[in-house]
Design brief:
single chain; 550 residues; 20 helices; 7-stranded antiparallel sheet; alpha/beta; 20 strands
């Protein structure tokens, strides 16, 4: 049937099945394309073409992968500012076969990059093929809501409660009616009816009662959209009620979605709704999910377009750090990693490398006690596992003893390790520990990670991802999105952490990996964050580079 949904599928067999199902469901398309192996035309070409296609109100796609991640994001950002793009993406459970050794690399599977990329360019990601079309028909057939305040009208208490619960879970708001709306309904509905939201017009409601409630709530300025629920009871008039809803649907600028719950008794009513372009859902949660998607898309379209943040940095020093590592034939930056961060505006502790116990004592005295001491060896990544770390060393004598002990322990555990010396570092005062990271994803480029440090990253995996380069909003959203964000905002009398310092650190990291695409993995762990206004210090970092091109 002719409709307003443009649909592309990377599976031909699925497409033919969907076309057959769509005829049965009365779903119409404006364009239908089977992409096959994308020998000539890709989803990016279609998105660019359909952005200006007046017959397509919504674009939907089934994809197994995207052709070029960054180009896909650019095309998606453009189309989603004018019409919704819904993508059901399969094949996300494989985490990719690349070898990884950093936290970021380990935690960033291909799924994380798709979640981040879609989010950053306003793509709506349904969780199933059926939800893909549930959402598509709402966008194709109804206007966008002005906001997230919904009214629910029902002839049954249970479905009204189900819809209310679903609305709350989806961060929608039940509209608060004006006193006039309430008085109007109270005068015309039976005393047993509930005239607050959800409006329950009671099980013996005929079409006239639906008319009173629907008319009153659609006129209310505090209502952005309406969901009408109906269950077939003794005197219910499904077909007539459907005709009533159809008559309103064409006249109001507010979206109307329905959930007529049942089967055989509702066939005539469902035909009326279908022909009038009123989306109906088998159960209330489907209608709520569709309304939520419409609200999200409306808010995305209203978001101002931001450019990625850029800072003035010392790119000569950064180039030198990478060149020095390459000269030594290595792909992992040792202490040069800290130089690289410093070049990009991170605050780092005072430090240096000692080759002998006496060197170590002199250096520690210059830095000031207490100090942290760590073994320096390209073969030893997890230093604490081999006894290669000492914290809180308080005087020159302890430094000499620690030097001997660290070197001996490291040699015992990793006999083949080439030991360059011992790293002496200012011991930074304690604060909240977070981890920042980046890993190179073959699909989208660099993926940035943020989470709480320490056990939170190891055990709870409480981390979020975005594709570089980041805008200020992307970085701020990352900080607010982790499950334990409240710990950073300050709980139980703790002062709030310097969130701005974290945001700026993420933006600087984004600029670093964008400027140096050869960085394959990077961790800043921990970044110690102080109370608001006091900044943050990058205490340790690991950076891996791609193998040099031969």
């Amino acid at each position: 049937a002719q409709g307003r949904i443009a649909f592309a599928s990377q599976s031909g067999a699925l497409l033919s099945a969907i076309l057959d199902w769509a005829v049965f469901q009365g779903i119409g398309f404006s364009k239908v394309v089977s992409l096959g192996n994308k020998a000539d035309v890709s989803e990016i070409d279609l998105i660019k073409s359909w952005r200006t296609d007046p017959t397509s109100k919504v674009v939907a796609a089934y994809l197994e992968g995207v052709t070029n991640g960054q180009e896909f994001m650019r095309a998606a950002k453009e189309i989603t500012k004018v019409k919704p793009l819904l993508v059901f993406k399969s094949g996300t459970t494989a985490a990719g076969s690349r070898a990884v050794s950093s936290h970021t690399g380990t935690l960033a599977g291909s799924e994380a990059s798709y979640v981040a990329a879609f989010r950053q360019c306003g793509v709506i990601r349904p969780s199933s093929v059926s939800e893909l079309f549930d959402l598509a028909i709402a966008f194709a057939q109804q206007p966008l809501p002005a906001g997230r305040r919904i009214a629910i009208v029902t002839n049954a208490g249970g479905p009204g409660i189900i819809a209310t619960d679903a609305a709350e879970k989806n961060q929608l708001r039940l509209a608060a009616f004006t006193p006039e709306t309430i008085a109007n309904m109270r005068a015309k509905l039976p005393a047993t009816a509930s005239v607050y939201n959800p409006v329950d017009i009671i099980g013996d409601a005929r079409t006239d009662r639906y008319a009173v409630a629907i008319d009153a709530v659609l006129k209310d300025p505090g209502v952005d959209g309406l969901i009408v629920l109906l269950t077939p009871q003794a005197v219910t008039e499904p077909k007539e009620t459907a005709q009533l809803i159809a008559s309103y649907s064409g006249k109001t600028r507010k979206p109307i979605l329905t959930s007529f719950i049942g089967g055989a008794a509702l066939q005539d009513a469902l035909k009326v709704l279908r022909e009038a372009g009123v989306p109906n859902y088998d159960f209330p949660e489907g209608a709520i999910a569709a309304f939520k998607a419409m609200v999200d898309h409306k808010e995305w379209r209203e978001k101002p377009i931001e450019q990625p943040a850029r800072f003035i940095v010392n790119s000569d020093l950064a180039l030198e750090s990478i060149a020095d590592t390459r000269k030594l034939g290595r792909t992992t930056l040792g202490l040069e990693a800290m130089d690289l961060l410093e070049a990009y505006g991170f605050t780092v502790p005072q430090s240096g490398i000692a080759r002998t116990p006496d060197d170590a004592a002199r250096l520690a005295t210059d830095i000031g006690f207490p100090v942290v001491m760590k073994i320096v060896s390209p073969e030893i990544l997890h230093k604490s596992d081999v006894g290669g770390v000492r914290v809180g060393v308080r005087n020159a004598e302890e430094v000499r003893e620690a030097f001997v002990s660290i070197v001996a322990s490291s040699q015992r555990y990793v006999p083949q390790a080439h030991i360059e010396g011992v790293f002496i570092q200012e011991m930074v005062k304690p604060g909240r520990e977070v981890i920042l990271g980046a890993s190179y994803d073959g699909q989208f480029g660099h993926l940035l990670m943020f989470g709480l440090g320490g056990i939170y990253v190891e055990v709870m995996r409480d981390v979020v991802f975005r594709v570089a380069p980041l805008t200020m909003s992307d970085a701020r959203e990352m900080v607010n999105e982790i499950r334990s964000a409240a710990l950073l905002r300050g709980v139980r009398g703790q002062p709030p952490a310097d969130i701005d310092a974290i945001v700026h650190a993420l933006l600087r990291l984004s600029q670093l990996v964008t400027d140096f695409p050869e960085i394959t993995e990077l961790d800043v762990n921990p970044l110690v964050v102080y109370p608001n206004g006091e900044g943050a210090v990058a205490v340790d970092s690991r950076i891996a580079l791609s193998a040099p091109r031969s």
